[in-house]
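Quick entry between incubations.
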Amino acid sequence: MKIAVCVNHVPDTETKVKIAADGQSIDRTGVNFMMAPYDEIAVEEALRMRDKFKGDVTVISLGNEKHKETLRKALAMGADKAILVRDDSERDSYGVAVGLAAALKPLAPEVILFGKQSIDYDDAQVGTLVAEMLGMPSVSVAVNIEIQDGKAVCVREIEGGHEIVEIKLPAVFMAQKGLNDPRYPSLKGIMAAKNKPIEEQVAAPADRLVETLAMSKPPAKAAGRIVGTDKTAVPELIRLLHEEAKVI
Amino acid sequence: MKALVFIEQRNNVIKKSSYETVRAARDVADALDAECIALLVGSGVESIGGTLGRYGASRVLIVDDPALAAHSGTAYAKAIASVAAAEGAELVFLPASQMGKDLAPRVAVKLKAGLASDCIALRVEHGTVIGTRPVYAGKALLDVRVNSAVKVFTLRPNVFPATIAEANVGVQNATVTFSPEDFGAVVTKVEVVVGRPDVTEADIVVSGGRGMKAAEHFSLIESLAEVLGAGVGASRAVVDAGWRPHDEQVGQTGKTVSPSLYVACGISGAVQHLAGMSSSKYIVAINKDKDAPIFQMADYGIVGDVFEIVPELTAQLKQMLGK
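Done. Structure below.
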């Protein structure tokens, strides 16, 4: 089975966001970048599918030279091949999807995996955009994927529960936390990854459809009030919630 | 100009987030002198459409087909894009619910449109819609403009008010023809936990963190949530420890919530957690560490023992609310 996984290289979740001088993006000074957490789950799922059904796993990332770190990590986890779809500009989700779809098409994968969203722009679009561009069905927010006889039965998270989705292959799946526990790369894997080549392609051109006008910090909250230090504060808390905040 | 709003129904009940989306779209449409059209997709949905007029729809269209009784992302997206094209709608709105977020990218590609996801505010400037959307899980906000001819927006649930201002309107049929290829993905079963709202939809969320000390102590959180009719949330630490299911996790690698009231019990307030709940309208923190970052975010705090305060709060609220 041919499996492709698309991964993104994003600021660490610990990052305290500062706005850059351009007023449109974050200040990258001192920011650590890493593979997006949901993408790790997607890579793990791909490796498990390969071990079960045989075949190979190609990991793909669209972005600048630095994305090679994340591709290297996926190789260290056990992916077979890596492709950097090179683009040094800041694309919107549509532009990323155009570039990834063009790179994925000649591979003709039966399964394409993504994380359910990156943790930078939180668009949660790219996987489904790629699916539509390639004419494939998709399951977003997948917490279980069972592949059998040219189709998959998935559990998809919805508000307050789950739905079971039957989907025909080839298809796109977007991994949600709970799908699996991603492995850490072994020392052997890390060493082996150093010798695996990363193929480079130039990203297919795309228009920018969504334009950023400005980035800002959310309004700071005024310092709160300490109502008390033990259970005698409870009546006052309830009074404030009822009379001042009017939320109960 | 026309604005089309996709209405999410489950079991032929319209979701609150869809009413919110219609009202927000109507406000935008009024500013642009545009028509606001609501679109219901499903099977046997004719009888539920009329109320959409009260939330601002000037017209309600339905794509009603027995084949659509079970949800199919591929087929529903076709229905929305077909109606948007037939009506010549330049603006398409969907709720940023799990269903809306699944459909919107497909609709956008079919309409060659840009998509602004998960907006928490919309405004019209010089005849153009500008959306504000949280990025980095709410650590920053982006103002965005969509530059394609057709523009698609999804709106975060629980943020826009669902105000009633007009009367019911009639429902008209829109015709979309489906073929078997349109049903590449089909929902065969839905399992929803009855009785407790999801944290993304709840008006009140009660969350527990590591300060709860053990999985079994979450019964205190559940009791308080029950009295308040609240959703139950959890910090990443307790989800990673296996005390709570991952679908309750609030934060950067969990869910982002905007309830009217967020009660954080035994949560210190790691930056990833604060990102996921900072857009709550009111925040209460109960924690024994007075230096916990959560207190900088909280409107009301009690510096004290969760095992003493939470049961007392539950008991007094129970009495007050007559439960």
